[in-house]
Amino acid sequence: MKKLYSAVFLLVLLVVSSVPCIGAPSSSAVLAPKPPLLQISGSSTPVKPISLEFPGEATKSALESGRNTEGTDTPTSGSDKDALSDEEAPEGATPEESSTNPETEKQGAEDSDDLESDYVPEEGEEAPATIADPLEPFNRAMYHFNDKFYFWLLKPVSQAYGEVVPEPARISVQNFFSNLAFPLRFLSCLLQADFSGAAKESGRFVVNTLWGIGGLLNPSAKEELNIPKQNVDLGQTLGIYGVGPGFYIVWPFLGPSSLRDTVDIAGRYFLYPVSYLNPWYAPMAVRGYDAVNDTSLRIGDYEALKGAAIDPYLSIRDAFVQHRKKKIEARKNKTENNSPSGEEKKTP
Predict the structure, then answer these.
(1) What residues of the chain score a pLDDT lower than 50?
(2) How far apart are CA 265 and CA 36, in angstroms?
(3) Fewer CB near the terminus (10 Å): N or C of the chain?
(4) Tens digit of each residue's pLDDT (9 = 90 or more) over 208-238
């Protein structure tokens, strides 16, 4: 019996001596004996002492306790969740997994807005009008010729004329020549089917001729009558009916024009009463005087347009094309509004 007790005792010793080796963190770990529970006097509750564990053992126990409580419903505060997420985030986290700075997002949005802030034409806005210029070498030569003619002759003569003749007298001369151009404006209104404009132009001519001393005065423009001049021509009439400008051309002494507007130049010659004066050089002299008088009233306009341009030839060409386009579109809108179909469109 004693032998049996001795064998059992040895077996227990072997088992007890082998337990500390199982689950050891490393070969260098030191196992401390487990201290007994402390008993506070006057209390029946035992107090567990602080466990003396090395960092490796503490980390292992923390991970094991986290796995054991993973499926529980214990509430966690928002700050604790943020702390846990920050601790659990790996160092090589991708941009999608890491948090984004709101200021960075805002700055990126502003940069994208700047990149996309290119000019976008408004709804209904048309592209600038253009015109073919196959005669550009000739046109540039004529432009330089007219430019020298203006600065060397026309401008000095007009300035001298303006110093001698007072401005009210020059305005009266301008009114006289404008009144003589009545046949051209009247015919253009008829060809555009603008009978209201033709009637106004006729009334204006009669009033200015009779009460304006042959057109020197402009009583039709006073507030009592208010008969405006119809700013129309034959080139504009062709444009209303869909005739394109053709190509650009610069005429000597006359300035910029187009193939379509050259018809207006011919019409001005045949419909202008001055063209039928005798002797043959009289029309040229009268037209020259008209040009000097008109230039004296607007000195500085050409200089301003030329001075603000990198290439004055191109600037004057573009300005001419835009001016003619707007003039034709304005007459088109007026004709459509005066037509019966236009009145029906206005009625809701």
Answers:
(1) 15-16, 18-44, 47-63, 65-100, 104-121, 342-348
(2) 123
(3) C
(4) 999 999 999 999 999 889 999 999 999 999 9
What are the contacts of 283-290 at 24+ separation with CB within 8 A?
290/173, 290/177
β-strand pairing of 255-258 with 46-47: unpaired
Q: How far apart, in Å, are the Cα atoms of 10 and each of 1, 18, 163, 209?
A: 14, 12, 140, 147
Question: Which pair of structure tokens corresponds to residue 197?
Answer: 């404009």
Per-residue tokens: 63: 């991970």
110 is written with which tokens?
């502003």
Which conformational region is residue 121 in: left (phi greater than 0), alpha (psi within -120 to 50 degrees), or beta?
A: beta
The pLDDT of residue 43: 47
Cα angle 294, 254, 309; round to 5: 85
Q: Residue 13: what are its φ and ψ, rounded to 5°?
A: -60, -40
**Burial profile 55-71: b = 16 or more Cβ within 10 angstroms, e = fewer:** eebeeeeeeeeeeeeee
The Cα–Cα gap between 297 and 165 comes to: 11
Instruction: Fill in the amino acid letter for 342.
Output: G
What count of residues does the chain have? 348
CA dihedral (211, 217, 221, 224) positive or negative? negative
Other CB atoms within a 10 A radius of the CB of residue 341 amount to: 8
Q: Which residue has the tokens 């045949």?
A: 270
Q: What is the DSSP secondary structure assignment for residue 165, as one 8-state letter?
A: S
Place of tokens 């009625």: 347
Cβ contacts of residue 250 below 8 Å, gap of 6+? 138, 139, 140, 142, 143, 146, 256, 257
Assess contact for 306 and 312: CB atoms under 8 A.
yes
Contact 25, 57 (CB under 8 A): yes
Contact 212, 218 (CB under 8 A): yes
Cβ neighbours of residue 244 under 8 Å, at least 6 residues apart?
260
Which residue in 309, 318, 304 sits closest to 256, CA to CA? 318
Instruction: Determine phi and psi for 80, rounding to 5 degrees.
Output: -65, -40
Q: Is the pTM of this model over 0.85?
A: no
